[in-house]
Amino acid sequence: MEKTKLNFEEKLSRLDVIVKTMETKTLSLDESIALFDEGIAIIKLLEGALSEAEAKVAVIIGSDKVTSAKE
């Protein structure tokens, strides 16, 4: 799976599939570790995307407050 080409929702969906697979199927240790590793990598990408979104919102809110103060 190429994680960098998926959008936020697709990454979240893939993470959901990983969790459900690990909860409902009997997997070998190697399969479990591989899925766990993939899940952790996706979580890191999602956290990064959320941090970027929070920064953008903070800029928008900040610029809105400056605009409102000038009016």
Folded structure, characterized:
This protein is mainly alpha-helical. It has a single domain, classed as Helix Hairpins. It has 2 helices and no strands. It has helices spanning 8-24, 29-70. Helix 1 (8-24) runs antiparallel to helix 2 (29-70). The model has no long low-confidence stretch (mean pLDDT 88).
Task: Give the arrangement of secondary structure elements.
Blueprint lengths: L7 H17 L4 H42 L1
Helix pairs in contact: 1-2
Question: Summary?
Answer:
With 71 residues, the protein is mainly α. The chain has helices at 8-24, 29-70.
Relevant terms:
single chain, 71 residues, mainly alpha, Helix Hairpins, 2 helices, 83% helix, 0% strand, rod-shaped
Under CATH, the topology is which?
A: Helix Hairpins
Computed CA radius of gyration, to the nearest angstrom: 18 Å
Structural class: mainly alpha
The number of helical elements comes to 2
Strand content: under 5%
The largest sheet is: none
| Count of strand segments | 0
Number of domains: 1
Overall shape: it is rod-shaped
Low-confidence stretches: none
The ordered string of helix (H) and strand (E) elements is HH
Average pLDDT score: 88
User: What is the CA-CA span between the terminal residues?
Assistant: 50 Å
The level 1 CATH classification is Mainly Alpha
**Judging by the overall fold, what is the CATH architecture?**
Orthogonal Bundle
